[in-house]
Amino acid sequence: MRPRVLAAARPRILASAAALACAALPHGAAHAALMENLTTSVTAMALGNAVTADPPGIDSIHFNPAGLARIRGDLESHHAFGASIRTHASFHQPAGFSVGGWTEDPVAGTSTGPVRQAMYVPGYGMPGWRLPGVVIPGMGFAFNQPDSKFTFGTGVYMAQAMSLDRTTDPNDPARFAGRQVQVQRLVYASPSVGYKYSDTLSFGVAVPIAHAAFVVDTHMRFPNELLGVFGKLQQGWCPESGGNILDTFGFGLCGGGKEGMVNPFKQAANMRLSMTAPFDPTINLGVLWEPTKWLALGAVYQGGAKTRYAGTYEFNTEPMLRNFIKGLNSGLLGPIAGAVLGFPTEIPKQQRGNLSATIPFPTHVQLGIKLRPVKYVQLNVDASYATWGDWNALTFEFDQSIKLLEVARLYGIPDSGKLKIPRGYKSLVNFGYGLQIFPTEKLTLRFGYEPRKSSVPADKIDLIAPLPDTKLFGVGVAYRVNKDIDISLTGSYMKGRFNAPADSDCNLNCNTFTNIIYNPYAGLDVAGDIHVRYVGFNLNKRF
Questions:
Q1: Please, are residues 530 and 468 in contact by the beta-carbon 8 Å criterion?
Q2: Are 110 and 90 in contact (CB under 8 A)?
Q3: Cβ neighbours around 441 below 10 Å, total
Q4: Tens-of-pLDDT digits for all 543 residues of the chain?
Q5: 147 Cβ partners below 8 Å, 6+ apart?
Q6: Would you call 306 exposed, middle or buried from its count of C-beta atoms within 10 A (0-12, 13-18, 19+)?
Q7: Distance between CA atoms of 345 and 325, rounded to whole angstroms?
Q8: Rounded to 5°, angle at Cα 209 from 206 and 148
């Protein structure tokens, strides 16, 4: 397109872009976000992650590798993020509350306690320390020979992260939905190349190679209608002073003694899963079209992966279920009933071993436009789509039958060598907005807004992934010290709230006979929020 034609078309393009930006505002759009792009780039965080049409230096490797072609000469980049995640939940017992005849849940009326963060260290695991926040460093290099159309690069960055640690308070009611949760994806190498096809068009490809970690440690309880009925039968059949002689010739409901009396609100077990995928490559493909200084369009495809994790598990079962099964097998008819229901003959205090799981890393597509109608102001608008719908359910495969899970055969779970945790996430569209102001040649002011409608539907949210619809606000400043050095500083804040009335969320509080995995707050109203704070620093230096 010739400059004269571009100039004539400029008002129409600006009007169309403004209409697109207005149409994309949260009142009428569907957005999607979970954990992506939160600790990846200092510049992007200040601009609501709307940088596809204006990729920021070496961070182009992630956001649009075609942006590497804009780097002239050799460049090194160093950055560090400080991140703090706070989430809170409260529990309320509505009128008419009953779980199999039990009407007093000790969790009701309580709130969750302090939350801390940690970081999975590749080759070591989860460290013992717990901190109010974590510092995440990163670095990258780009190489360009004079007059070459190719720019090569590599970077180290955190592509995905979620860290919750609630172990400070041993009685935290959230311990039944994740005492410790760590999901992270650390890119430790990313061979990349950008190619400047013409003065206005560039292409790029990157191959991020990541170490992925997945850790869940949680206490477990099963407030379920059927378990409640069992408990009430025991209360009516088993005398407090001792066993029931008739029970010996029956089903052995009293044979487990006082510790074998079923209470649906008592802790039943503790589960810890720790898995990694040390080598998990994906691919990023990008294109950047910059026909004029005031307009640019960009697109990136970030390929997903069927990430195969391997690691260890540990189940520690409390006396309640162990003694209940032991008592069941002490009665005359109990072993017969147990065999019909598929119950184990005993539940060991501890089972540990190896496990594996295939957990999809979602594909991500992002489109962006950059508009700079005047010299001192630039607007970025991005639209993105991530396939979090692949997280419909997560299945963990164990190296043996888990005796605790054999009890769940009664609830239609046939294979005790696998644990299938429903998720029901959705793949939607997300928008981000960035504004840059250039008061001087050396100084840049940045502002960002990203309304992140969660890929976790309102009826699927839980305390393991307390990610409701959120709003992300970012602000930053960049300063060019000289022709070889520039620095950037960013602060951002993300917040969101959720409310799950009783029986509305079958990942959290459904109260039926079959929803045992996993609804630890069955029949309770659960409300909560999440607040995430970030500070980031970046230094670019040409060498």
A1: yes
A2: yes
A3: 7
A4: 434 433 434 333 333 333 333 333 333 322 334 466 777 899 999 999 999 999 999 999 999 999 999 999 999 999 999 999 999 999 999 999 999 999 999 999 999 999 999 889 998 988 887 888 888 899 999 999 999 999 999 999 998 888 999 999 999 999 999 999 999 999 999 999 999 999 999 999 999 999 999 999 999 999 989 889 889 988 888 876 556 667 777 777 888 888 889 999 999 999 999 999 999 999 999 999 999 999 999 999 999 999 999 999 999 999 999 998 888 888 878 788 778 777 888 999 999 999 999 999 999 999 999 999 999 999 999 999 999 888 888 899 999 999 998 888 777 777 889 988 888 899 989 999 999 999 999 999 999 999 988 889 989 999 988 889 999 999 999 999 999 999 999 999 999 999 999 999 999 999 988 778 789 999 999 999 999 999 999 999 999
A5: none
A6: exposed
A7: 7
A8: 30
Return the amino acid letter for 249.
F
CA 50/CA 368 separation, integer angstroms: 7
Cα radius of gyration (the chain): 27
Q: Are 233 and 225 in contact (CB under 8 A)?
A: no
Q: Can you tell me the distance from the alpha carbon of 94 to that of 463, in angstroms, rounded to the nearest whole number? A: 20
Check if the beta carbon of residue 396 is closer than 8 Å to that of residue 416: no
- Could you give the 3-state DSSP secondary structure of residue 92? strand
* DSSP summary character for residue 362: P
Question: Residue type for 58, please?
Answer: I
Show the tokens assigned to 186. 């650390």
Say if residue 480 is exposed, middle or buried (CB neighbours under 10 Å; 0-12, 13-18, 19+). Answer: middle
Are residues 530 and 495 in contact, defined by beta-carbon separation less than 8 angstroms? yes
Residue 392 CA: distances (Å) to CA of 103, 160, 531: 33, 19, 26
Tokens of 256: 């487990």
DSSP letters of 18-50? HHHHHHTSTTT----BSSBTSSS-HHHHHTTT-
Q: What angle do CA 157, 161, 165 make, to 5 degrees?
A: 135
Peptide bond into 518 cis (omega under 30): yes
Contact 275, 353 (CB under 8 A): no
Integer Cα distance of 36 and 187 in angstroms? 13
3-state secondary structure of 472: strand
Q: 2-11: list long-range contacts, CB under 8 Å, 24+ apart.
A: 3/292, 6/291, 6/292, 6/295, 10/294, 10/295
- Do the Cβ atoms of 399 and 419 come closer than 8 Å? no
| Residue 461: both structure tokens together | 């949210």
- Helices 334-341 and 319-328 cross at an angle (nearest 10°) of 120
